[in-house]
Design brief:
It catalyses: N(2)-succinyl-L-ornithine + carbamoyl phosphate = N(2)-succinyl-L-citrulline + phosphate + H(+). The chain contains 13 helices and eleven strands. By secondary structure, it is an alpha/beta fold. The radius of gyration is 20 Å and the shape is globular. Bound molecules: N-acetyl-L-norvaline (AN0) and phosphoric acid mono(formamide)ester.
């Protein structure tokens, strides 16, 4: 694999999950693969899980790891070509990227949607420049439109917990005070198309996602109806995608918060969330603390997903 920016690049999802199971059972089996090879992780945005799990994955593979927080300690980067750089940004991405490429063998990039231009966000303007100018394999640690390492960990987790051949997975929007990207829900929906699961998306009117990611998933505006008989409830907030409302918070309606009454509509479903999660906005304390909550094993599988992907990138 040359780069990893979408879960679709894994090809057959069942084979990818089998590779992940091998990695999970044999975390130190491939230490030679990463020996004397360096991972650079570059963060334009905050992270807890991605930062730690990807570093751990790389160390399991025998790699050296460097981490750079662009907004803390590095020069502020100009990202627009053609601007007169007389402002507060002393360095341009067009020099910074190839320079960073000289210092490492693989680059991970976290660069969220900025909500300034939908075309730039959905064109993955920042990530694409890393692919074009770094000269090294690049992977997404959540970019503007997708979070494929999260989606892969989510699918690995569902495969571990599912009791049915074809579980019903419901992705529900839930309220949040700040505008969040669509990357996690886009990517999860994209991943669900690779599985044989029954997949339903539920959200208030106005929160429709890009049809490209929704695919042939069922969209049900009545959350209670959507949750009926669910085996997995995947909660997430996202901001509006459509038209003028792109990047806006349209609702903070806490009747969408996942609580025990809603979980009672399901078939004793497992509760999932990528984290970080705002309690009593997205999900109530009792639901996230219940035995059906699998958010911690889901986060633990981020090491497995990152290590499986890094292996493929190191193999080339
Ligand atoms: C981010 C998001 O919703 O995309 C990262 C989630 C993994 N969440 C926040 O910024 C709170
Ligand atoms: N789920 C996830 O990517 O978490 P972080 O933002 O903490 O990396």
């Amino acid at each position: 694999m040359k780069n990893f920016t979408s879960i679709l690049q894994l090809g057959n999802i069942n084979e990818a999950v089998r590779k992940a199971e091998y990695v999970k059972a044999n975390p130190f089996a491939d230490q030679e693969l990463g020996r004397n090879r360096t991972l650079l992780m570059l963060f334009f945005n905050s992270s807890l899980r991605t930062r730690l799990s990807t570093q751990k994955a790389a160390m399991n593979l025998g790699m050296n790891v460097m981490v750079l927080d662009v907004n803390q300690g590095a020069w502020k980067l100009e990202t627009e070509r053609g601007v007169v750089m007389d402002g507060d940004r002393p360095e341009h991405l067009l020099e910074a990227i190839p320079v960073m490429g000289c210092y490492c063998d693989v680059i991970g990039v976290r660069s969220f949607a900025k909500f300034e231009s939908k075309a730039d966000d959905y064109g993955e303007k920042i990530l694409e420049q890393f692919i074009k100018y770094s000269g090294k394999p690049v992977f997404s640690m959540e970019a503007a439109t997708r979070h494929p390492l999260q989606t892969f960990a989510d699918i690995i987790t569902i495969e571990e917990y599912r009791k049915k051949e074809r579980p019903k997975v419901v992705m529900t929007w839930a309220p949040h005070p700040k505008a969040l990207p669509q990357a996690v829900p886009n990517s999860f929906a994209e991943g669900m198309q690779m599985t044989g699961y029954e997949f339903v998306i539920t959200h208030p009117h106005g929160y429709e996602l890009d049809p490209k990611f929704v695919g042939n998933a069922k969209v049900e505006y009545d959350q209670d109806k959507a949750l009926e008989g669910a085996d997995f409830v995947y909660a997430k907030n996202w901001s509006a995608y459509e038209g003028e409302n792109y990047g806006k918070v349209l609702s903070m309606d806490r009747s969408w918060t996942v609580d025990s009454r809603k979980m009672a509509l399901t078939d004793n479903a497992y509760f999932m969330h990528c984290l970080p999660v705002r309690r009593n906005m997205i999900v109530t304390d009792d639901v996230i603390e219940s035995p059906q909550s699998i958010v911690i094993p889901e986060a633990a599988n981020r090491v497995v997903s990152a290590q499986t992907v890094l292996k493929e990138l190191l193999k080339g």
